[in-house]
Amino acid sequence: MIQNLLDGILTGSIVSLGAIGLTLIMHMLRFANFSYAELLGIGAYAALVFDRMFAALAPVLTAKVGPLSLTLALALSVFVAMVFTGVTAIIIDRLVFKRIREKADALSMVFASFGVALIVRNVITLVFGLKAQLYSNDIAFAVVLSRDPLLLVKPDQVFVLCAALALMFALHLVLSRTTFGYALRAVAENSSLAQVTGVRLSTMVNMVWLIGGALSAAAGVFYALTNHLSPAMGHNFVLPVFAATIVGGIGSVYGAVLGGFIVGIASGLALLVLPSGYIPAMPFLIILAVLMIRPHGLFGEARE
Questions:
Q1: CA distances from 228 to 28, 133, 232 (A)
Q2: How many CB atoms lie within 10 A of CB 209?
């Protein structure tokens, strides 16, 4: 049970990163973006490309970081992939969502998001193929924390959890201690009033996409680092990310973080009583339970 709990916490940290950007976008732009989870795949594969490129240009960067399977090239690639994915998210918004929200309603944007998700997934498949890939072919050995009960943890998993928490804390500081954070929250709450006070709505929208894309890229790389890369990554994370957003409450960053851990831990503990094939249904059950008990989420506010 403790092993499942630890695995659930790791999964929850990855889901939380993805849910943060989604909850900001849903709160600010008022539409359910089903293509958002595909940013995880874009980020993960972008990191793969940059990793190979940096390793070829500077072989010294192929050195591993301590006991991790993470190399210096991949560590550098994570930051580049975060920027690349954030910019890609802005471009997608400019080409698709911005044009639709200027001429149609939110429902049209939801339908468009399904199309964007299919296009992104198929482009990744076309370029990289259907075969699962790894950042490193070296075998990562787990460390035995306890033999009774048996507890195993890989150094990569510890790194992923610490890095995810560090990114969440950094975002917390930005939102709570900077003028930009205040402006971002003001636009999310009341865009018209925020514009009257001098905040540029277009700039804030771009920054939300940039932040959401960057965090999703990190989540994609962290998942691939502890598992593998697959074109279906985004599709597999759609429900967990949406479940975390709904559980925490749309618009609440801290709710998204808590929701992500709830979804991850619930899925991990469910393995104790359910076959693994039924685990993807857990986000469905969590969404239904929250909508029936508290429709606006744990930290969300009811809207008229």
A1: 33, 6, 11
A2: 28
